[in-house]
From TrEMBL:
Subcellular location: Secreted
Native source organism of the sequence: Vicugna pacos (Alpaca)
Family: Belongs to the seminal plasma protein family.
Principal subcellular localization: secreted
Cysteines paired by S-S bonds: 63-89, 77-104
Protein name (record): Binder of sperm protein homolog 1
Entries under PROSITE patterns matching the protein: FN2_1, FN2_2
């Protein structure tokens, strides 16, 4: 017997606040996502329950400083480990454990 969890997708809550990290399907998300939509969105709950909003500039994940990468602690964006020399940062204090990051502007 297969069990399916049904989630009702409600209309956008425009004045809501994004919750990070949030759980959706089998993932944990530390930033806005783009699933079956033209624009990135976020959950308004720790576990997505149908309440969501489109992300604005203020909603996107912020770098976390300091963060631990390999054997060093970084207090700013770094290009260490990036094949293209672009600077990046961790979205959690422990990149080694969580492996969640984004490119810096």
């Amino acid at each position: 017997m297969v069990s399916f969890k049904t989630i009702t997708h409600l209309p956008e809550v425009k004045d809501g606040k994004c919750f990070f990290p949030f759980h959706h399907r089998d993932g944990i998300f530390y930033d806005c996502v783009k699933f079956k939509s033209k624009h990135k969105w976020c959950s308004l709950n720790k576990t997505y329950q149908g309440y969501w909003k489109y992300c604005s500039e203020e909603d996107f994940a912020k770098c976390v400083f300091p963060f631990w990468y390999r054997h060093l602690i970084y207090w700013e964006c770094t290009d260490d480990g990036d094949a293209f020399g672009k600077t990046w940062c961790s979205l959690t204090q422990n990149y080694n454990k969580d492996k969640v990051w984004k490119y810096c502007d």
